[in-house]
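quick one, 191 residues, struct below
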Amino acid sequence: MSAIMPEAVEQIVIPEPLSRESAADALTLVRDGVITGEGPTTKGRVHFSRALDAVDAALCVRILTAPAVEHQPISRAEAEALFEINDAATERSDDGRFDDLLAKAIAHHAASESGLPVPPRTVALSPDTDIESWAPTYAAKVDTEVLEWISSQMRGKQRVSRTLMGLVATLVGAAALPSLAQLPYVFDIGM
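---
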């Protein structure tokens, strides 16, 4: 993984998230910067439109692990903003960090929405924490509505991370078996 200059992330001025809603709003600023290559999240560096780099990924981590939200589960709005960033970025130079973050954030959201305990964000989203160390233990109890939402976010997408696909396979394998007859077309995921 390439080194991310902490000062580059710290120089980017966006409001410190005070709630999950303001964290989702801050993530939309990252998405806008990815789309246009301009704006507050790209100041002071060369950034091309539709590109996601290591600083963008680190900025997403900074937003999602802000002290005000660290001990709260990832919200639907935050997860949707991450999916939007993923969709907007056609070029990647982040060494896979965003894909890892996306899969872990979706697992965090899915578990919490299903009423299951989740680790603090700094633990769950860390590149040093294997998703398998906490997410699979929740798979058998993930709510069907959450699975449907995840599949709707992934359906028809050109780019789906291997980590996220592995997570979905784990969730479907463990959670959907009893209710597979109820979900015949939910997981229409093309690669």
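Strands lie at 51-53, 91-93.
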